[in-house]
């Protein structure tokens, strides 16, 4: 009952806030807390900031930009609960056979995500912070006070865990787990008849396929894509299949980072974060967002550099929002390929979106692919095209990639083509994976790990090596344990 009244109270507050915000936008002002004020507000409670003097707080240099790895390393001194990483591991049973997905310490919620080098990343959020985050989401999910009962079908565990405590007579969040579009799931979806659907692009795609085939009927009025990059082509395709414009929620362990407006533009959530830009290139377009959370005080995110690469939108959005507009979330840093420059001894980054455009322009038959850089000069591609077209399509894609690499001035890598198996299609669409680091010590690495899921299968009968290509070859019957020999010239 308490959560019900809180729910109604907060929803009304949201409406008032929205009204005020619209007025503020009209007169061109936006209220923002400064970085120094955030630092002052956490100084007393978080050990790592306790010894900072006021004059140091005023100087930004006192808080260097933190990478996720640095943030993780400083876990013990970077939270307000005095919780050590070792203790958090124990609470979450991370060393046991059945680790928990979440746990509690002094009423704060702990959960884990994958970190680097096998070390799990542990996140902490107080109850108050969870409530605030839940309502910032409700604000987007329920733009109007609900007239009837709203049912939210959610396939993202971290979001359902946040929203389900507020289930009441107006809104109900149903947590779904994704295990493919099986019969029991379809029955459950049909029975619950959701008003709102929240899922990753891969899950939406699989559900859309069921809808097209007539195996699933959904009368959802709002659909939100989240947790993975949703490309424009994919957004259009999904919107057509569902008959509903797909909206974007930019959601991560770091919080509710942004969402698309009524004009379809993604805006960063500057009500919850201060955002600085760490630009990648001289053109000041692609950047890593360096965020400072205005709401998380239990495990503060102060000048925290996200792994995502965003492309800034130059034109103001017609919706009138002052919040930073994003052209596109390009992908993660780990999705960027690095190839050796033809002329200088340097690495040249090749961005995921560039690869996607070039590959999909190679042939309209490609609905999905996976591309992996497996070494400085080897790239493998899995394409989901009919076997009869595989030779022709891979040749066209290879030519398109060769042109791209030529334009970028990089040494042409060896390309290996595979057919994408049916079983793999549900989970991915346009996926880039870099399995190498662009470090000088790369050559010292003796082992390149290959995801067992993508161990090679039978090559198609039509797969033949094309003599016209200098660097391309169609995969012959082989296993990844065998040496992949290239034609090289
Ligand atoms: Zn907008």
Descriptive tags:
single chain, 489 residues, alpha/beta, Rossmann fold, 3 domains, twelve-stranded mixed β-sheet, five-stranded mixed β-sheet, 14 helices, 22 strands, 24% strand, globular, disordered C terminus, binds zinc ion
Descriptive overview:
The protein is of the alpha/beta class and 489 residues long. The protein folds into three domains: 36-63 and 75-124, no CATH class; 127-333, ANL, N-terminal domain (Rossmann fold, 3-Layer(aba) Sandwich); 336-474, no CATH class. It has 14 helices and 22 strands. Strands 4, 5, 6, 7, 8, 9, 10, 11, 12, 13, 14 and 15 form a twelve-stranded mixed sheet that branches. It has a five-stranded mixed sheet with strand order 21-18-19-20-22, with helices on one face. A hairpin with a 2-residue loop joins β8 (246-252) and β9. α1 crosses α7 and α10 (201-212) packs parallel to α11 (232-242). The chain is globular. The protein starts with a helix and ends in a 15-residue tail after the last strand. The structure holds zinc ion. Zinc ion is lined by residues 261, 263, 265, 267, 317, 319, 321.
